[in-house]
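Hey, resending since the last one bounced:
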Amino acid sequence: MTSSPPPVCPAHTTTAGLTSLSEVTASADPHSVYRRLREEWGPVARVELEPGVAAWLVMGYEELLTITRNEKLYSRDARNWGDFQTGVVPPDSGLGPMMFWRANVIGADGEEHRRLRRPLDDGVSSIDQRRLRRSVQAMCSDLIDGFADRGRADLVAEYAQSIPLLAIASLFGLDMAERYELLAGLAALFGSADDSQAGNRRFEEVLADVMNARRSALSDDLTSGFLAHPDLRDDSEVLQSMVVMISAGQETTTIWIARTLQLMLTDPRFAGRMRGGRLGIDDALDEVLWRHPPMTHMPARYALRDTELGGQRIRKGDALILGLAAANDDPRIHDGDPSAEPGNRSHLAWSAGPHACPARIPARLITRTAVETALHRLPDVRLEIPADEIALRPSPWTRCPVSLPVTFTRPLSPAPPHGA
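The structure tokens again:
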């Protein structure tokens, strides 16, 4: 890292010459981009979110812990975003669904955040893990049976993408048609492109219909649990709690499954250690979280006053993006070889502080079951294209493979359900 003083953007507003965050996620080797940014800026780098809109990308492990743990200085409430207040970011920006303020747990700090977080924590703790595991295992086998006779499949569209959707939506009592409508809306939302706001509106409309239908016939699903929860004061808060839990769980779990399968197909060391039993499933999943956290970049924190972070002058209202993948690769805390540290869960894939992911246990259960089922039933699965031809979905936030086309011989029979 250079010892010279870090640069400061002229007038703090120009984005000329800045690296685009979308270009980082689209890079074949984002860690090389992080290294270049560290050499130029240090652990906190100025980047472009969309043309004319800049933010700070926090790439340092300790710096990221600082902003996630200090909500009195770094707020999650996007109403503090200076560029939105001054009109630099227009109301119809594609960044809106991921960065604009919502009246939910993500946009709150302090006691308001704790009140809105309790229904999520209670909902997660109410999940019957044994029942969920059996259900997910059956879903995975059904999906594999659906493409078994073809001898080929797309393990993103026909497997990784469907499993969280089926599992999470079933917890909320959604029917099949509603589940696939949600999926289309979520794809647009996380893309942060021109269709993101329309996708977000449709996503919320579907959930509102489910919520209204459930009101007259409560059951044991999470929608009913949110409707009855004393900490949720009105329908808007119930809806937004559903939005948070489903959107975050679907996208991140899809990416975790897809990235694990991708490494199995393209990294001989990783695949050999998994299939040879030298790397347990959970250790393998944590290696993926070190190397490819589902949220590559997490929006956002907003500075409540002028301050300093990582050698940079942060001004009141500045947006700070959590560089989760970059922080995991911070050379000050990690040697870059996650395979040398099986069992190490000090990665920041779940973020940290009060807003850390509340659903890491069911997410791991779903992902582990999906990977174990694929390992057992598709022992000779092979990637149908060169590894360097695997494309990624456009997004400044995530690096999800568009598809994983594979071939295989006849799948093995399903394993007996765990806990049966």
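The longest strand covers residues 44-50.

Sorry for the duplicate.
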